[in-house]
Every structure is written in structure tokens, then in C-alpha cells.
Amino acid sequence: MPISINEMMMREIIMDHYTHPRNRREGDASYKTIYMDSDSCIDKIYVQAKIENGILVDVCFHGVGCAISIASTSIMTELLKGKTISEAENIIKNYLAMIHEEPYDADVLDEAIVFMNTSKQAARIKCATIGFNGMEKLLKGDK
Amino acid sequence: MVDFNELRKDFPMLNGKIMQKHPLVYFDNAATSLKPYQVINAEMDYYCNYCANEHRGDYDIAHRVDVEYENVRNKVAKFINCESREVVFTSGASMSLNMVAHGYALQNLTADDEILITDAEHASNVLPWFKVAETIHCKIGYIDLDREGRVTIENLKKALNPHVKIVALAQVTNVLGYSIDIKEFAKIIHQNGAIFVVDGAQSVPHMKVDVKDADIDFLAFSGHKMCGPTGIGVLYGKYDLLDKMDPLMTGGGMNTRFDTCGYIGYQYPPLKFEAGTQNIAGVIGLGAAIDYLEKIGMDNIEKREKELKEYAISKLSKLDNIIVYNATSESGIIAFNVKDVFAQDTATLLNSYGVAVRSGNHCAKILNEFLKTDATVRASLYFYNTFEEIDAFVEACKKGGDFLDAYFN
Ligand SMILES: Cc1ncc(COP(=O)(O)O)c(C=O)c1O
User: Fold this and answer.
1) Cα(B299)–Cα(B293) distance, rounded to whole angstroms?
2) Residue with CA nearest ligand 1 atom 16
3) How far is the alpha carbon of B338 from chain A, nearest alpha carbon, in Å?
4) What pLDDT was estimated at residue B364?
5) Does the pLDDT at position B226 exceed 80?
6) Boundary residue ending a domain (B279, B295, B311)
7) A67, B404: Cβ pair inside 8 Å?
8) Cβ of B351 and A120 within 8 Å?
9) What is the predicted pLDDT for the residue at B367?
10) What confidence tens digit (pLDDT) does each residue in B318-327 have?
11) Is residue B257 domain-shared with residue B279, that is, in the same domain?
12) Structural domain span for residue B247
């Protein structure tokens, strides 16, 4: 991630992940799956991870959602793939802190910092966190 | 002539409320309506000046509560043209429909019977019937919608058969806003020997509904969609049907006497269905809401909304990035999408311009067969909305493709 990122780039990154989501596919039975929806928005997303020896060897998702939910979940899959469970948990913790306008470590978030403005649209916080919250739940269940 | 702009002064939410640095344009009236001071003050008056329980006290202010409470029942009866004893206070349309499903259908139907609904019904007019079917194993049948998504007389006739005992339909549907002629429907349904349950949640706030003239059997509606408070609604039922209906809730206020050997004497309807302390402030507020609407006149309200809707449709249809799904529907509900933009993103963009609308994904069948989309945006109008607000909304829709503006401006 470049040190300075401007608004234009942030928009482009979100649109790129929305229109060309990474890892949007359905994992087989060897994946753990969490289904996420909410009554305050209309996103319905399945978050999946294949975990071997404490490492997230693959992360993917499928479902329908708005630009923010699809793009943030897409970025999450890239960010967490290949990480250990504790690294992943640390990233999720910092991401959620950013979304909720608390102190966070931008270094571990890479592209995910494009969602730093989500609180401007408070009703979309659910969308920007749907994938991350899902993965947090999934990892908790794996312990 | 009603001066609708003048009426806006009655609504605190319409006087200087700002959302995302823009004046609030409230187009989510199908979800809930805004409340005028007349309603807010009526509730406050109860809490401040005659706060006591109903049907309980031997003192002056308690007596006043009884009088005011029953007075609202009379008002509701006049509003929909029925007898006062046919008006049951509930928490809203959902509770009213559940009461008919559990109190009437569950008691009076068998596994051999059928309940007819459609794919365009609100969950509150679907799931209670599913629950009945789950318990007594009766059939849930569907009246086909026509190509636009309407319920027609022809399709009603096709779906009717001797097993059908209940037909439950919205007078105005909540996604596409099409309305049906309940009088015509009632006639045909009764010829089939079935009863007609009308979900009036989206109709009663917007037009004159006359239950006697239409000869419907049950009517459910909510106060909060008609300028009234939340948590209060009505179930109208023909008296002999209410009499056959079991109360969902038992408790204080609905029995005449009981002893521990199991003898129980229930009150007659409607009190039989009003166990426990009721939402008294809500009832008082509902009474004020009915007064407010009647002062404007239901016909004037209907006409105003038609004008607003037609204006909005004519403006939206000039934009080539907008798809409207229900241009011909009678109500003030506009279902639309910005081309190639997910409904929720459009709703967020509109939020950033101060426009309150709702995005939703709906029953799969409606989507696939009629709308061919995952989700739609719903803008729903009420009499206090203005042509200028529609202009602001249309301007915001023009920017639809730049929906990320909502996060970066
Ligand atoms: C057609 C229809 N029926 C029933 C309901 C349920 O009303 P309530 O939530 O007030 O019980 C609604 C509310 O959205 C509705 O639109």
C-alpha cells in the first residue's frame, strides 16, 4: 500500500473489488462456512475458509450484497489468505477498530483502509464489516 | 382546497430536520409515517393530565380514561364504517393478522382446508398462515399474479375451489403498491363459502376503506403508518366471527370471572381480545391521528398522493438510468433501481442527499418473475410530501451511478 492514498484511488479500489471480486466462489466441504445477513441491510454473504495447521490456506465467499459489502469482503479474502489464525485475528481487530473510529494500525490493513470513511454512512457499517465479522466468528468457532 | 404545504407545519420532522447536511426528504412512508403535533400532544395529554389505567378505576381520572379509550373505538368504527364492538385494539397489523390466524383459522379449519394468499404478500400476511398450516396440515394455495404483478379477479376465480376457507390479501401490496377492489373480491370469495381477510396496512392510511360496503370479514391495519403512534393497530372482524374466535392472550381485563376449579367466563368481543393493560397512550394517539386524517379528508389524501406519484413517475421516466417497476400502480409506492447499481448503494447515495428511502430484497418469486432483479429501492409517498421534494429526489437519482460519492463527499 502506498504511503499516501488519495480519494480517487480509494474509489477505484472499491469499484475494482466490487466489479471484479476476488475469491468469489464456493468452497467444498473441506471449508468452514459462516452465513451472514442482517435485518438492517439486504446483504447475504457466505464466508468460507480452509484452515490447515493453524493457517488460512484459502479464503473465499459468495452471495449478494452492495458495493461496500462485496468489496470489503473481497479485500478481506486477499488480506487473510495465507495468514495464521492469530495474524488474521489481529487484522480483523484493527479493521473493526478503523471502522468504528478507534485507534488502529494501518500497516496491517493494506488496501482495506479504503473503508476508513464508512462511518459517514452509519447505516453501511454493517456492510463494511459483514465479511470481517463473519470471519471473526468462523475463527472463534475453530478454536 | 387543502393547503398541503401548510399541513407540513404540523410535523416536527418536516420542520428543519437535516440529514447528511440536506433537508430531510422523507420517502419511507410505507415503512412508517411521520407524526403531527396533534398526535404527539394527545399522547402527552394522556400522560400529563389523566394518566390512569383503563377499565379499572373508581375515580374521576380513571373514568376519563375509559371514556376517551372507548371514544377512540367509536372513532375507528366510524372511520372504517363498522360497529364499535367489532373494533379490537392490537399492537399493529402483524398482531391483528396473527390473531386471525391463531384465533380463527387454527380453531375452525382442518387438514382438508385451504388458505389462499399470493407471492406479493408482506411476511406478516404469510408467516402466520404458514404457522397454521404447520399445525393443522391444511394447504396454503397461491393466487397467480398477472404479468405486472397484480392480483386479478380471473386469477382469484382460478385459484378458488371448495376447499378454500380463507383468502388473505393485501388491499395494497407493499412492494409494488397495486391495489385490489376488495368489494368485488369479497363477493366472489363469499360465493365460494370462504372468508376474506384484508391486510389494510398499506391501504387504510391512504384511502377511504368501508368494511360494511365492501363486506369483508376481517381487516388488519397499523396506527403508525397513518400518522399515529407505533405499537397500536386494529383488527376489525364481523361480530359473529369475532365471537367464534379464540383469544390469543388471556389475563386481566378479558375475563368476567373465574375460579380455581377452571370455570372461566370471558368478556364478549372486543374486550375478550384485550387482555392486560392496553397501549392506552397509543389508542389516544390513534384517535388523534384519525381526527387529523379525517379533517384533511381521505379522498383528498388519495388524490394528492396520485398527483405526487404521477409527477414522480413522469420525471423518473425521463431519466434513462432509472428502471421503474410499477409505473401503473395506484398507490404512492415507487419501486425502482438505478441501472447497474445495487439497490442498497442507491439508498445510501440518496441518504447522502438527505433522501430517506428503503432498499429491499423480496420474495424470490416476485423478483424472478416480475422484476428480474435481486433487490429494489422503494420510495413511498404520503400527503405531506411535495413536488419540490420529488425534484430533489429525482436530481439525486440522476447521480445514481456515482454512488461512492456517499462516502467521499
Ligand atoms: C402490506 C403490509 N402488511 C403488514 C405489515 C405489517 O405492519 P406492522 O409492522 O405495523 O405490524 C406491513 C408493514 O410494513 C405491510 O406493508
Assistant:
1) 10
2) B174
3) 13
4) 58
5) yes
6) B295
7) yes
8) no
9) 64
10) 999 999 999 9
11) yes
12) 40-295
CATH of the domain at B305: 3.90.1150.10
The model's confidence at residue B235, banded by pLDDT at 50, 70 and 90, is very high
CA B321 to chain centre: 31
If asked whether residues B305 and B347 sit together in one domain, one would say: yes
Domain count, chain B: 2
B316 and B231 in a common domain: no
Complex ipTM value? 0.86
Residues with CB under 6 Å of ligand 1 are B 92-94, 122, 124-125, 170, 174, 199, 201-202, 222
- What DSSP letter does each residue of B266-324 carry, written as one string? EPPTTGGG--SS--HHHHHHHHHHHHHHHHH-HHHHHHHHHHHHHHHHHHHTT-TTEEE
pLDDT of B360 reads 85
| Nearest chain A residue (CA) to B362 | A42
> What average pLDDT does chain B have?
94
Length, in residues, of chain A? 143
pLDDT at B260 over 60: yes
Which of B175, B340, B341, B344 to mutate to test binding with chain A, by most A CBs within 10 Å of its CB? Answer: B344
Alpha-carbon torsion B386, B388, B392, B397, what sign? positive
Are B309 and B290 found together in one domain? no
Task: Residue A12: list chain B partners with CB under 8 A.
Answer: none
Cell numbers of A86, please? 492469530
Which residues in chain B are closer than 8 Å to A38, comparing Cβ atoms? none
